[in-house]
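Q: How would the structure tokens look for this protein?
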Amino acid sequence: MVEAQVFPKALGIEKPWFVSDVKLDIALRRVDIYLERTSELLPCPMCGKPCPDYDSSER
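A: Here is the predicted structure in token form.
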């Protein structure tokens, strides 16, 4: 899928995040880009230690 290569580069998306889906609605002039992440733990923004996430709702 070309989108899986183009959008991460254009948006600066890096591991552990990746583009899982792209939906194009030409009539509404809208592109929905869906991101997911690998199972890697994310670093705490305060101390940098790996920690589990707690907010995974779709926005």
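Residues 3-51 form one domain.

The chain has a mean pLDDT of 84.

Upvote if useful.
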